[in-house]
Amino acid sequence: MCQLLGMNCNTPTDIVFSFTGFATRSQEHADGFGIAFFEGKGARLFVDPQAALHSPVADLVRRYPIRSTNVIAHIRKATQGETRLENCHPFVRELWGRYWVFAHNGDLKGYAPHLHAAFRPVGDTDSEAAFCWLMQELAKNHARVPTPEQLTDTLTELVPQVARHGTFNFMLSNGHALWAHCSTHLHYLVREHPFRPARLQDEDLSVNFAELASPQDRVAVIVTEPLTRDEAWTAFAPGELIAFVDGQPLRRPARP
Amino acid sequence: MCQLLGMNCNTPTDIVFSFTGFATRSQEHADGFGIAFFEGKGARLFVDPQAALHSPVADLVRRYPIRSTNVIAHIRKATQGETRLENCHPFVRELWGRYWVFAHNGDLKGYAPHLHAAFRPVGDTDSEAAFCWLMQELAKNHARVPTPEQLTDTLTELVPQVARHGTFNFMLSNGHALWAHCSTHLHYLVREHPFRPARLQDEDLSVNFAELASPQDRVAVIVTEPLTRDEAWTAFAPGELIAFVDGQPLRRPARP
């Protein structure tokens, strides 16, 4: 089973602390890793078919504090598709002049969507096929970049059509919002004022966010399994889709 | 003026030696750098709005010998578009289930192509607009990945329509072939058996390829200005487009 890590912030923030805890888990997820950072509309993608524990690319990510408002990371335990670079998550495509980044955890059995438009998989994973199908259908539903609210409505209609094929925990971001969908395991927390110290679950490393963050900073961290021991993580319900904007879940009026 | 570096090989080869010489030139090209590596159908893209001389990402590329059959690198002196991540070359798009990587050196004045299909620029450079237009027109001309010969014919028709707007030195690769087009400055050489030592033009560094390469290896290196002092570089003619496959220019029968 793969693991996912996402971050959505109201201020560009580095993910070094959370990524360090996350990458430690890659001993049992030895089939590659990847991480995508948005900086404005631009995106950087680092992928490596080596395990994050041994990869020089992961080492760079741990040492180079890239400040980003939206990050999606993935460590891979191959279920479908060989351990090749083109099968490493996250995947990136361009739509409406924006980059879209996607990573998936789970297994979609016998999933072969009808891809008739401008998005085709390069590798042979179920995950990239699902991403291409979502992009194809989003492109049909909107003529230009929709608001996070509009896109959430469209995803709410599309996602169950994929999720019925198996486990579909995923994260998607366009550099503005980050959408996370849970089939089985996904947790999040919002770090905001007053900040407190936190200690990593799997490593003897702690950080006092009160010393690092400004009172107005807000960061949402979304991850397969909680990363820290002393913070209150909220579990997603199965089937739940949450859009994160400016470091918190998007609050919306109840629909009629 | 930006600088371009490309490599096309018949065997996965690391570009550390050539990139080291190339990155040295970035003192006067301080507006970012980028490099894309194909490994099979997969691609890795490293971009940084910092100059290659000071970038931790460039440092990784110099120290981590990534073996690739097709590489495109770019160091940037901004002419159009701000120094932002989304304006860093190379650019990547997917078409026909393959990644396409593009980098440009030059300046296209008043260039605003009609982009009506699935490829839109994310940043605001003339270069990314030209790439999107080429992708759009290639998609119209072929239903699936064409052979290097077929794609060369299509590019031969398309490229002058862009080049009449200004300087259009570029490199394009799909991980199989690498196309290089020269408006003003571009040079190439083929390293093959018998291999000899070479000394970098701008740095006191030499390498003896005879000790590193196997007799059957063949590598084409394409660059704005020659990288080494003691090798015979061939200058492109203005307007010349060359496709490189398996480490050498594509030989083709004369067309009737």
Automatic annotation (TrEMBL), chains A, B:
InterPro entries on file: EgtC-like, GATase_2_dom, Ntn_hydrolases_N
Protein name per the record: Class II glutamine amidotransferase
Span of the signal peptide: none
One function term, GO molecular function aspect: transferase activity
Lineage of source species: Bacteria, Pseudomonadati, Pseudomonadota, Betaproteobacteria, Burkholderiales
Native source organism of the sequence: Caldimonas caldifontis
CDD domains according to UniProt: YafJ
Limits of the Glutamine amidotransferase type-2 domain: 2-247
Alphabetical list of SUPFAM superfamilies matching this protein: N-terminal nucleophile aminohydrolases (Ntn hydrolases)
Keywords associated with the record: Glutamine amidotransferase, Transferase
